[in-house]
Amino acid sequence: MASSLAKGPLVSTLRSNNVLSQRSSGPLAFVSAASQCRQFSNSPQHGMGNMRGVPQNFSVKQPAQPSTKTRGRELSRADLPQDIGLLPGTYVRQLWRDMPSIFHQPAERLRLEWLWLKTGFQNFLGLLAYCKWVNKGLPLRLKERRQVAGELHQRMYTAFADGNLPLLRKTCCTGLANNLGTRISTRPKDEKVTWHLDKYIRSPSTFLTGIRVVSDRATQIPELPDSGVRQVVVRITSRQSTGKSKVRTQRGQQTPANEVEEAAPVKQQDCTEYIVIQKLRWVGEETDWKVWGHTSPTTVDNLNDPAFAAGLTMRERMEAIQDQMAGKK
């Protein structure tokens, strides 16, 4: 899937920065314009007859442009795009109870099961190639995936409840952090939100742990050496409690905790979430794991997507995916 990122925001940012640097450089623009004008000799007029047949236009050698790797290093970490989207072809297995019946929809059920096996095998091979071949010596980090996902999940919801924007931006990718920040800004000033993870529901769907990795994919970024992205999708089943309360204020200051008026009773519910965590590698340097967002399981309706459609060659599939990402279809 590496070629599917060729039109993505990471490479586009590098290209746009390079164009801007060329346009803003006065000397380069002057030399380019001068090379298109006719050159006149400073020798006397009578000497022009001896110069017949000699070209009067001299080409000016353009300075070498910085390589893609150099431009990538010059791009600051703040300008690094984080929301590259969910990698095309990511298969997210449904819960057993949500899968189509083997008796009523046998063809669809067998196709989903085959996609699960095929993509799982391909993803593992791709991860091995990404860590041990493309980026030699990069650890697989198989054991830390569930732990990191659980910590980021709790940190994200706690920061959202507390209205802690700095922690949100440190925990989530830019798009998700901005979305949650907007929701925080629309809250009433006297409203206090609480969130608590009561327990993980240790069902067989999560191997009795509450957190199960359902997809782990990695791919390099085209045109940028020693760079790539890794995305892990985890299914988290948990029991959560949320509540809202109003705080009485006096002279613009918050009163003690015993003067907080309850606005709504605490609500407890069981949740099944598919959280996507992401780690970027940028010219040999890795960023921390962050929450990209939520996703949905792959269903029968997704079987017609280019990434899962049957009867396509690899080239046709990649072209269809690129057209879909570019908005052509």
TrEMBL record:
InterPro entries: Mba1, mtLSU_mL45. Transmembrane segments: none annotated. GO terms for cellular component: mitochondrial inner membrane. It is found in: Mitochondrion. It comes from the Eukaryota. GO terms for biological process: protein insertion into mitochondrial inner membrane from matrix. Pfam families: MBA1. Residues 55-79, 240-263 are annotated as: Disordered. Residues 56-69, 240-257 have a biased composition (Polar residues). Keywords: Mitochondrion, Transit peptide. Its main location: mitochondrion. This is Tim44-like domain-containing protein.
